[in-house]
Design goal:
The chain has about 375 residues and is α/β, with parallel strands linked by helices. The chain has helices spanning about 15-20, 30, 40-55, 70-75, 85-110, 120-125, 130-145, 165-175, 215-220, 230-245, 260-265, 275-290, 300-305, 350-355, 360-365; strands at about 20-25, 60-65, 115-120, 145-150, 180-185, 190, 205, 205-210, 245-250, 270, 295, 310, 315-320, 330, 340-345, 375, 380. The longest helix is centred in the N-terminal third of the chain and has 25 residues, at about 85-110. Bound molecules: glutamic acid.
Length: about 375
């Protein structure tokens, strides 16, 4: 492993990197596990944790999405090379995930960091109720200054309900936590017009502002025995990220301190989003989701919303419709005007029981601690006043 060579092409890091407040970093299996022996590349992981610690010192939130459980576990179990049966992959993941978590814990601690393991399935990122739950946990961990380390819950995910690759999972996670930057650490320093290993005319693409059919065609297929994704799933991840307002960067992880290398302007491919994560999310809530119910709020709540506050249960007088936690609902003013839309933190049944009640009474009434907000301001898109 070598440090990236400073080339004539080296530039200062893009502002999208230096200004990023919340960064999701995807780490592929091939970077973590030695291909021949299946052992963990501890020196490399230690250098990555140093970089993460530096970003945290700069006040940034960092979430890691790490593969590697199957790659580590298959060697421990002595499974043969080549494609594994689903059951074998699940067994390998069960064994490997423990080693992976252990390594993260140990090496993060050396850089003064605390890590937290989060295993997600496809449903956790697609179903809104579970999506809110997973997001809440990740947000809480970040507030508590822990570094979430996410992987797919491979031991329970079957072929039909699986991402299968952590490229797309990491893009969903980035959208879920409204990250402004997603880094895909790959075995190559970005997107090329053709596979550079086999085509000498291949050119590196430093900047993508739109994922066109031409860009998709460049990605080809690929994927190695160890990692599920190739450039193809990275481009799919790009579509998800850009749609969520997250900028994405593909760069090589085959150097020590790969994140510092980005700060130093090493060669990468940037995919730039046209909008920021907050705007993207508000558009999604306002435009794409079918509202399942209506919340009728009082004048005090209307004022609070206009001032940028969350909608508290205390300010809601009546609810209509059938909705679950995480469903989109319409917010109506006392005179019936639609004020906006948002994702309800409570299902209708629970919401009705706590309407107009004080925050301190909620846990007693429901039997669980749910918080005073019926719609958090981050989950709300208000109509602009005409
Ligand atoms: N979740 C898988 C693992 O941890 C890897 C998926 C991928 O390679 O993207 O082994």
């Amino acid at each position: 492993m070598s440090q990236p060579a400073a080339t004539a092409e080296s530039l200062a890091a893009r502002p999208e990197w230096t200004r990023a407040r919340r960064i999701v970093v995807k780490i592929g299996s091939a970077l973590l596990a030695d291909r021949e022996t299946g052992t963990l590349k501890t020196q490399w992981l230690a250098s990555l944790m140093e970089d993460v610690a530096e970003l945290v010192r700069q006040g940034k939130d960092v979430v890691l999405v790490s593969s590697g459980s199957i790659a580590l576990g298959r060697h421990k179990l002595g499974l043969p090379k080549g494609a594994l049966e689903l059951e074998q992959s699940q067994a390998a993941a069960a064994v490997g995930q423990i080693s992976l978590a252990h390594a993260y814990q140990e090496l993060a601690a050396k850089s003064g960091l605390t890590v937290a393991q989060i295993l997600l399935t496809l449903g956790d990122t697609e179903q809104r109720r579970r999506y809110l739950n997973a997001r809440h946990t990740i947000e809480t961990l970040l507030e508590l200054k822990a570094i979430p380390v996410v992987n797919e819950n491979d031991t329970v995910a079957t072929a039909e309900i699986k991402y299968g690759d952590n490229d797309r999972l990491s893009a969903r996670v980035a959208g879920m936590v409204s990250a402004d930057c997603l880094v895909l650490l790959s075995d190559i320093d970005g997107l090329y017009t053709a596979p550079p290993a086999s085509d000498p005319t291949a050119r590196h693409i430093p900047l993508v502002t739109e994922i066109t059919a031409e860009i998709e065609a460049m990605a080809g297929d690929a994927g190695t025995e160890l990692s599920k994704g190739g450039m193809k799933t990275k481009i799919e991840a790009g579509k998800i990220a850009l749609g969520a307002g997250t900028n994405m960067v593909i760069t090589t992880g085959k150097v020590l301190n790969p994140l510092r290398a980005i700060s130093e302007g090493s060669r990468v491919s940037w995919f730039l989003a046209k909008q920021d994560p907050v705007t993207a999310k508000k558009r999604w809530i306002a435009g794409q989701l079918e509202p399942r119910g209506t919340l009728h709020v009082d004048a005090g709540a209307e004022k609070a919303l206009a001032a940028g506050k969350s909608l508290l249960v205390a300010g809601v007088k009546r609810v209509d419709g059938e909705f679950e936690r995480g469903d989109a609902v319409i917010i109506r003013a006392p005179d019936g005007r639609e004020l906006g839309r948002g994702l309800s933190a409570y299902a209708r049944g629970d919401a009705e029981r706590i309407l107009g009640r004080k925050s301190s009474e909620i846990a007693d009434i429901l039997g669980f601690e749910g918080g005073p907000e019926l719609i958090h301001r981050n989950d709300m898109a208000l109509n602009t006043r005409k």
